[in-house]
Amino acid sequence: MATKQITILKEHVDKVETQIGTSLKSIQERLTVIETSGFSELESTDEDGRTITSKVDKFDLISQSLINISVRLEQIEKSSCNHSTDIGSEKDEILAKIEAMGNEIALANDKLTESIKNDISHIKTVVIEKLKVENTNIKSRIAVFENRMVEAERHMYKMDQHGRKVNFEINGLPDNVVNTKENKNILKETVVKLFQHSGIADASTADIEVIHRLPYSKSVPKPVIIKARRDFIEKVVAVKKDFINVGINHMAYTNKLYINDNLCPYYNKLAYNCRQLKKDGQISDTWFSNYTLKIKTLDEEIKTITHEYDLVKLFPDFQFSFDTAIYLIKTNSLLRDSRFKIQEFFPHKTKLENKLNNTILIFNNI
């Protein structure tokens, strides 16, 4: 709007300047005419309507023209002054309006800035509170899923170990006790003799269903894994202590012999970590009893360990070495190894694998 008013004022000034220029040009022309003639003829009309021609001295005409010019200049000057006054007044009015508009814009900007700050503060508060609630809910859900997974893994490892109750291992039996082409039962017959010397007088090769060396063991000599009848297992448990020196006393061995539970890879890992705790002085003892891992705390409290979570919860600052993925890989590699003939020891393995796969599928769909 201010721009429009300024444009109108400029047009008005231009118009005044044009009028002044036109008047000056007219005056100049009249002066030129007077100078070229000493007298001028003036025509007038009498009462009867007749035209009267008279001669006028050029100085009278000049005087009269100058008077007229002076009057015209005075009019133009007055008009210019009025227009200048009007232009100055309108200019001040426009500047005042512009200043008022600037103040209004500044005030509106301040209000908008304050409103935006308040909105941002409100949004931050709402969003942060919402995120806190969502974070709490997510943590709760994760805790629930972790508990479910731990219980599912407990059940899976327990099933794996349950199938090994009719199995046991002998550690320390020399590696030169092996089957040959001539006699494929040397290993079984030797073990039977050892049990007979230990106190199981009626031990026979019929008590032992399957016997093999453990191919992946790093121990020297490699352990022997045995699958036996359940009633024979009970007799073996009873002579564990007498079996330790039977090789030295009756078979001229230099190694002591130990009968150990046949543990699944995961329970072996648990047992290893418990031995590390004992070595570090965190617990007073650890052992297996009826295929169950036990520890005795420094307060003489006995606790059952069936999952790594149990150890981590009791000793959160201890550096444990757990890797469930390695356990699964080792188990699968044993299943694929024909030399070990694992199905002879674990005929239920197919059923166990199906349940294990179903458990994994359930957690993948959560």
What's the average pLDDT? 76
> CA-to-CA gap between the ends?
68 Å
Name the beta content range: 5-15%
SS class: alpha+beta
Q: Rough shape?
A: rod-shaped
Q: What does the radius of gyration come to?
A: 59 Å
How many helices? The count is 11
Brief overview:
With 366 residues, the chain is α+β, with helices and mostly antiparallel strands. It is built from eleven helices and nine strands. The longest helix has 105 residues, at 58-162.
Please describe the topology of this protein.
Elements: H1 2-36, E1 39-45, E2 51-57, H2 58-162, E3 167-171, H3 186-198, E4 208-213, E5 224-228, H4 230-238, H5 240-243, H6 246-250, E6 258-261, H7 265-279, E7 283-289, E8 292-297, E9 302-305, H8 308-314, H9 324-336, H10 342-345, H11 349-364
Antiparallel strand pairs: 1-2, 3-5, 3-6, 4-5, 7-8, 8-9
Structure notes:
It is built from eleven helices and nine strands. It is of the alpha+beta class. Among the domains are: 2-42 and 56-112; 165-262, 2-Layer Sandwich (Alpha-Beta Plaits). The chain has a four-stranded antiparallel β-sheet. A three-stranded antiparallel β-sheet has the order 7-8-9, covered by helices on one side. Strands 1-2 form a two-stranded antiparallel ribbon. The protein is rod-shaped and about 170 Å long. Residues 38-44, 324-343 and 360-366 have low confidence and may be disordered.
